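Internal tracking record. Fields below are filled automatically when a chain is submitted to the structure queue. Please do not edit lines marked as system-generated. If the sequence contains nonstandard residues, flag them in the REMARKS field before resubmitting.
Queue: standard
Priority: normal
Entity type: single polypeptide chain
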Amino acid sequence: MSRKDELLKVFAGVDADRLSMVRNLIDDAVYLEGQLDRLRTLPFIMVNPRNPAQQKSTPAAKQYKEMLQQYSNIIKLLASFLGKVEADEDDSPLRAYMRQRVNKCEIR
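SYSTEM-GENERATED OUTPUT FOLLOWS
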């Protein structure tokens, strides 16, 4: 079974309206997984042979970081379709404060 089939199996119960969006996100996730695997084989740090204290990130490291963020966002969005998003996001102090501010504004 391919990775795409594994992910589609998880979303078997999703309604038809969301299924097309889920399929597109799954395609993107599978693509990004392949790219991340490929990037992991490349060096992330270049070291100056004359001065090992001098180091800098390679373009592969920067691409990996960007793609990993995209992948994480897609996985989080897919999890939200299943209702499996962490509940602690709703309980953050910033969200509680903003909820209070919005409620005060609605009362006026």
